[in-house]
Amino acid sequence: MKSRVCRLHGQNDLRIETVDVIQPGPGQVLVAVHAGGICGSDLHYVNEGGIGAVRVREPIILGHEVSGQVLAVGKGVEGLTMGTKVAINPSRPCGACSFCAKKLKMHCLNMRFNGSAARLPHDQGLFRDKAVIDATQCLPLPENANMVAAACSEPLAVCLHAMKISGGVRGKRILITGAGAIGSLCVAAAAAAGAAEIVITDLHDEPLATAMKMGASRAINICRDAVEMDVYAKDKGYFHLAFECSAAASAIRSAIAMLRPRGVLIQVGVAGETPVPINALVAKEIRVQGSYRFHDEFAEAVGAIISGRIDVSPIMSLRCPLEDANAAFNAAADRTRTVRVHLTFEAGSV
Fold first, then answer.
1. DSSP states of 25-59 as a string?
2. 3-state helix, strand, coil in the chain (%, to 5)
3. Nearest of 208, 87, 70, 209 to residue 148 by alpha carbon
4. Kind and range of the H or E element at 227?
5. Which pLDDT tens digit goes with each residue over 220-249?
């Protein structure tokens, strides 16, 4: 059995190749991938050869935001049968280290995460027609599930985790900086959790329009309308919480300026070394909270999508077949016209 894969050989060297597919072993399933979202980390790997200190050091199959359908099951697998549609969790904590024992599995010392270059050998990703994965990575979906929407479960899980560790958003005034897929999904998650007001900022109108469809109260293009932010900086700041989703130094400074004293900055976006105005953090007693990946939130995200509690369809900008992967990555990098681009595979119509 053969499968096409989307493999990165080095910076700006993305190739569609064909590999052999093995049968699933005990506890594994063979899945036909339906749809896969191109994440910001995928773009960093392609365009920059890595993310911060993490570098691509060997060929790597990209992709970790996917859905699919079970083709075969290995021995001992229960709850999954041939034909079951699934959302695939790319996160595989070991369950045995000190952090897993403390229920901090996103900090597992032996974490395996599909499509990540953090370890060597790299953890190969899921942009492929067929993949053998652990059955525990699969969450069953209804027969009528929208498979592209289901592929948004992973980024939504990131946002649900950020909401959870923020201390709660109900009744609070929220600032979100960066209206990419994560920023827009943070809007949706905050709205669903009962935030009183959600203001989102970005450099481009298209993602801001999408964020408004996701539930934002107000969207501000800071390239054109930065003066509109001034009101939020008055009297030491306006917002209780800021979810920073861009990792841009200017956005971090802006978020800190707009937070009221003892507000909380939840840093969701990642990049390399970034300057931060420490004096402002101290003077306003701002708490900075990093937010990293997810664990239980993946199942929560799947439930929110299939129930319709959170509608992810506004971020689903474009679908491209796997053979057009290079064009899809170019489109995904153009934030003036796309929020989330999905690759589609041989599994059929989605």
1. -TTEEEEEEEEEE--HHHHHHHHHSEETTEE--S-
2. 30, 30, 40
3. 87
4. none
5. 999 999 999 999 999 999 999 999 999 999
